[in-house]
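Protocol step 4 of 6: structure prediction from sequence.
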Amino acid sequence: MPNKPKHSRKVQTAEFADFIERATGEVQIRVEEALGDGFVRLRVAEAEARQAKHDIRKVEDIVIELLRNARDAQAKHIYLASSKNDFGLRTLTVIDDGDGVPERMQTAIFEPRVTSKLDTMVMDEWGVHGRGMALYSIAANANSAKVLSSCPQGGTALQVVVDTAKLKERSDQSTLPKLVRDGEGKWSCAASPHNIARQVLEFALAAPAPLKVYLGSPAQIAASLLAWGEREANRQELLFCKDLAQLPLTLRLAATNDAADFAGQAGRLGLDISERTAYRVLQGEIAPLQDILVQQKPKAKPNSVDIFKDARGLKLSAEDQERFGYALERAFAPLADRYYVSLKGQPKISVKGERITVRFDIDKQ
């Protein structure tokens, strides 16, 4: 008897799988292909069962999908850099500290039905997430979508470039939303355009603790990553690291040597800044961001209690105190290297009378 064609056997296999599912009443065969490292390609029927609430219709939809993707990768910090050039191209770069994407999967994740969420499909305010179609839909609507860098358990940098003449965005992208509190003390967005900033703020409101989201220009995000790395990394870990690719993404900018190195490393993370801008970041001229929830909450009234205010009225604002603290950490770094010590926490700044006192708590190496 002649052999049956391969495509006939494949059809019979698919029909048999459907029969098993109908007979048992359970979804036992949901995977078309196991891709390794926890990734699978779902069968068409399974992907269709995980229907999203809506398709990608505007740039703001892409923003939400990128944020959800980072959240589902167990990120605790998500940095979104947004910029638009004179030709109408919107560049969105998301850098997170989540699980990372294996190198061999960094192209495949933009193919349809590829997901790492076989058993962890997510339902949230924006619908179902986990059917393996979000990144594919983004790539189909964007000029480019790619993973720029990733590290196992050390995060991912993913960049999307969109032509806003083809995929529209809200015309007002400059108005920043504010948070208001209702009678029960619950925060929500005040009336404002549903632009990128509002989408990010609403996502941050709904995100599980302790996830924090930062939104700004590439230079602001670079400054924020530098500040985070300088606070969190062990100085010796950065000093003796010969290959920055071994470091988590959020620590890499803190391990650079000068403005040229900083600009180059920022570019590899999708933050396109000049060497001059990098120098300004390193000099503290571009301040790091607060997470968007803190940034957009109403500021304290003038008559509120200020712990940095003395009897004569001298005070340091929280923003100035934070900026001063970052400058002190950078100034302390040469001593740390020379005498083999490291800071234990941030410098302690206090104001009393006509005196500002700074205390450095240290650990000996």
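Step 5 (inspection) to follow. Residues 24-28 have pLDDT under 50 and may be disordered.
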